[in-house]
Amino acid sequence: MDCYLCGAALSELDYCTNCGADVSRYKKICYTSNRLYNEGIDRARVRDLSGAIRVLKECLKCNKNHTDARNLLGLIYYEMGEAGSALVQWVVSMNYHSERNVAEEYLNMIPADKGRQETINTTLKKYNVALEYCRQGNNDLAVIQLKKVISLNPGFIKAHRLLGLLYMQSQDWEHAKRELERCRRMDVGDVDALLYLQECQEKLYGDERSQGRRHRHREEPAAVYTRNGSDVLIQPVAGKEPLGLHVFLEIALGILVGVLATWFLIIPGREAQVRSEESEKTQEYTKQIEQKNSEITDLNTRIRELEGNVAKQSDLIDGYSGEDGAIAANENLHSAVLAFLADSGGMDVDQYLSRITDDYVEQSAPPKFKELYEYLRDHIGGTVGESYYNNGMDAFHQQDYVNAIAYLKKACEYDPNNDDALYYLGVCCYESGDVNQAADIFNDLLTRFPDSAQADKARQRLEAIGE
Question: Does the reported pTM lie above 0.70?
């Protein structure tokens, strides 16, 4: 034992031989602290954990620097399933004495075992959920949570005690007694558990004990003696009459009345109570199901919204990618510009421009794109139109009307004033059997070029068609 002022070793004297301080009371406090610590050890050995916690707290009140007492208190808390309280005591112990302290091993023990740490966290969460259910009056759900807690941490005494209380509230005395006896086996000094257990035993065995008590009956005298003057009259006491048929009938009638009263009075009330409890439970479960269904509906709505966003993004990506997308159109326009600048010829430029769809140019293309596109078409229109017209006429002479129609349509697109291309386009349609299309083309020619050399031929064709 060291002096609290100078730190020197103390002798048997009541003062410090080094600094002269009075250490008589200090010694008494230390002796009391050590006595309480030894008592805590003895109580812990016989599993009086509640009593051990009580005396160890008194020990720490006398000497808060008693490291062994604080470490033992943490071990008892850990044994009772209260890992949080145990960690608090070990951390405080390390703050007081950080060197050669066994609390460091205890603190490193839990993080090293990941499974044990996860079990402790899950146990505390489920226990708090059970407490919240108890505050809300959902005892059935609280019982379920506490059973899960006990399965994860069988040594959690508070969980056993709370589960016993819930069983007592529902008048399930057998299960309550079983849980409270487990508490008593783990902590023989748990006063609360002992009181609850005593109440359970009274509910379970109180009626049997009261029925087992028998009062002693006085022996009735065989005769009654009375005095009349000088004479003594002896009057015998009438004995019990032998049981007859009417006695058995009365007993049977009483039993029948009791059965009928039970059937018509007690059982309906009990059934109504059971139905009421089941209805309350059903309503509670229905509310929970509705809440879950609402959550599921919200999640499904969110999923549909996300799917819609994904579809929009996919359409947007498709608009930029693919053969008809913006990326391909820009690449084709870029290649057409390079071909135009290289004087490769109008057909090479048209090779790239023809890959750009009209829908993209009219609906999606930006103004600058349209401007450049139209510029290139205007500058190569005459040359390309003439090339397509010559190709179309070659195909026409070879009676290849399908390719002739394709070439002549291109010629009309690039050179709308080419009445020859328009006329032979109608002739090709007529020869290929598309009479209606041919009639439309001839009428268009007469409307746009009424004085051209091909107008008379178009009229003759229309007369032959019958229009």
Answer: no
Given the candidates 1.25.40.10, 1.10.287.1490, 3.40.50.300, 1.10.10.10, the CATH classification of the domain at 119-206 is 1.25.40.10
Amino acid at 393: M
Could you give the CA distance from residue 60 to residue 26 in angstroms, rounded to a whole number? Answer: 14
**Sequence-distant (≥ 6) Cβ neighbours of residue 151 within 8 angstroms:** none
57 pLDDT band, cuts 50/70/90, is: very high
Domain ranges of the chain: 24-112, 119-206
Asked whether the beta carbons of 83 and 114 are under 8 A apart, the reply is no
Cα(first)–Cα(last) distance of the chain, in Å? 131
Q: How far is CA 412 from CA 58, 421, 422, in A?
A: 109, 6, 6
Q: How far apart are CA 98 and CA 92, in angstroms?
A: 10
- What are the residues facing 224 on neighbouring strands? 235
Any long-range contacts for 141-146 (C-beta under 8 Å, 24+ apart)? 142/166, 143/167
Q: What is the pLDDT of residues 94-134, one digit of tens each?
A: 998 888 888 888 888 877 777 888 888 888 899 999 999 99
Tokens standing for residue 383: 């040359």
Helix, coil or strand: residue 98: coil
Matching fold, domains 24-112 and 119-206: yes
Q: In this structure, are residues 85 and 120 in contact, taking their beta carbons and an 8 Å threshold?
A: no
Residue 393 DSSP code: H
Angle at 346 between CA 344 and CA 349, to 5 degrees: 75
Kindly give, in sequence order, each residue whose CB lies less than 8 Å from that of residue 384, ignoring residues fewer than 6 positions away. Answer: 346, 347, 349, 350, 410, 414
Taking only the tens place, the pLDDT of each residue in 3-44 is 655 666 666 666 666 676 766 687 788 888 889 999 999 998
User: Which candidate, 139, 114, 144, places its Cα nearest to that of 126?
Assistant: 144
Q: Which fold has domain 24-112?
A: 1.25.40
- Contact (CB, 8 A) for 373 and 353: yes
- Residue 336 class from Cβ within 10 Å (0-12 exposed, 13-18 middle, 19+ buried)? buried
What are the Cα distances from residue 141, in Å, to 121, 135, 337? 20, 11, 76
